[in-house]
Amino acid sequence: MPKEPVEVQVRAGAEADLPELTALYNHYIRETPITFDTTVFSPEQRRPWLRSHPEDGPHRLLVARDVRYAENRPGSAPGDTEADRQGHRPGRDPADDPADDPADDPADRQEQHAPADRPESRPWGGLLGYATSSPLRPKAAYDTSVEVSVYCAPEAAGLGVGTLLYKSLFEALEGEDLHRAYAGITQPNEASTRLHTRFGFRPVGTYREVGRKFGRYWDITWYEKELGPQV
């Protein structure tokens, strides 16, 4: 069956996105070791996380949506913000390669097409993925560092959504008082490693068997990226 074309909209996350953001994250809690959370969340439980990522400053939340369905959701209509007006058809930007974390692999690349199943049939609707920059540690001296992550909907595999989200996130962080970005990748995850390497991340060490999920222990490799002017 032919797959439908998709146009991707990247913008700041909003309260209206919370149910779909929660549903997508819960998928990765249930199905993968990518997150070490083991119990799913309700949207209300997830609300403090969303509100800790304002539209400006060093701690951001960006969402990628299928614009065909964005106009049907309150607070998500295209054109509401400058970011909303930057619609993107995968494949239009030569830098927008696939291999996104966690589900965007080159072998699956279908740059001009979306999955055949309709977004309204999925618990995360037209949400294609999201990226965040969050505090690395609570102590004040860590304030110039952030931990970043990106989650892509399974049906967004090969669309370059993770690449687009990270590109938008790091552009948004330019000018902030930040010195380093860090990402922890559960091993093995070749697609995530390729994505982070493409954006200048380098491995700095591995926590061996640091977490237990699904009846086994998992390693986490930490990656580091320089941000801002280097002193």
Describe the protein's architecture and organization.
The protein is 21% helix and 25% strand. It has a seven-stranded mixed β-sheet with strand order 1-2-3-4-5-7-6, with helices on both faces. The protein is an alpha+beta fold. The chain contains five helices and seven strands, in the order βααβαββαβαββ. α1 crosses α2.
Structural class, judged by helices and strands? alpha+beta
Helix percentage: 10-25%
Strand order of the largest sheet: 1-2-3-4-5-7-6
Major sheet, described briefly? 7 strands, mixed
How many DSSP E strands? Answer: 7
Topology as a string of helices (H) and strands (E) = EHHEHEEHEHEE
- Measure the end-to-end span: 54 Å
Uncertain residue ranges: 74-116
Number of helices: 5
Q: Roughly how many Å is the radius of gyration?
A: 17 Å
Strand content: 25-35%
Which of globular, elongated, flat, extended, rod-shaped describes the shape?
A: globular
- Report the mean per-residue pLDDT as an integer: 82
Secondary structure layout plus pairing:
Layout: E1 8-12, H1 18-31, H2 43-51, E2 61-66, H3 67-70, E3 127-135, E4 145-152, H4 161-173, E5 180-186, H5 190-198, E6 202-213, E7 216-226
Parallel strand pairs: 4-5
Antiparallel strand pairs: 1-2, 2-3, 3-4, 5-7, 6-7
